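TA notes, week 10

Several of you asked for a full example with nothing omitted. So below is the full record: structure tokens for the whole chain, then the designed sequence directly under it. When grading your own attempts, check the secondary structure regions first.
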């Protein structure tokens, strides 16, 4: 069974290593939504260890997103995303501490909206190669995703 898990991790690493910046952001957003739901479900069932792991994964993913912002090229959009990611991090942490499950719903809803927007964007973003106009530093996202075991 362990060999199977290693194969999945290798596949995830390959996905992260070969994905374009837009796809990496989408993967991060999908992970935040999935793990936020898992954290809420674990909270409701009293599985606090699983809740803690899921919340930590969401926080790690949001941190990757924060580090990946290219403020020079992203301008106001990068600033806005920075403020939104920071708010979500704070809201998730506060909700976790106060046992306020509405915080999990709010963070998930924000990332669902972001995900829909990024999915609606043209893959090449009008730049031809899909990277020149991105406000995301690809390396930072890939490094963060790799550090998370390709789970983003």
């Amino acid at each position: 069974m362990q060999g199977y898990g290693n194969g999945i991790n290798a596949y995830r690493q390959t996905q992260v290593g070969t994905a374009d910046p837009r796809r990496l952001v989408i993967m991060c957003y999908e992970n935040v939504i999935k793990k936020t739901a898992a954290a809420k479900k674990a909270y409701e069932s009293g599985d606090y260890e699983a809740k803690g792991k899921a919340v930590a994964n969401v926080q790690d993913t949001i941190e990757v997103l924060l580090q990946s912002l290219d403020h020079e090229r992203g301008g106001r959009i990068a600033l806005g995303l920075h403020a939104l990611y920071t708010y979500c991090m704070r809201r998730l942490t506060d909700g976790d501490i106060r046992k306020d499950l509405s915080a999990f719903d709010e963070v998930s809803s924000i990332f669902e909206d972001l995900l829909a927007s990024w999915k609606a964007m043209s893959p090449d973003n009008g730049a031809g190669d899909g990277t020149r106009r991105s406000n995301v530093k690809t390396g930072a996202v890939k490094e963060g995703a790799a550090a998370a075991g390709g789970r983003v």
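Confidence is low (pLDDT under 50) at residues 6-16, 126-135, 142-152. Use that as a sanity check on your answer.
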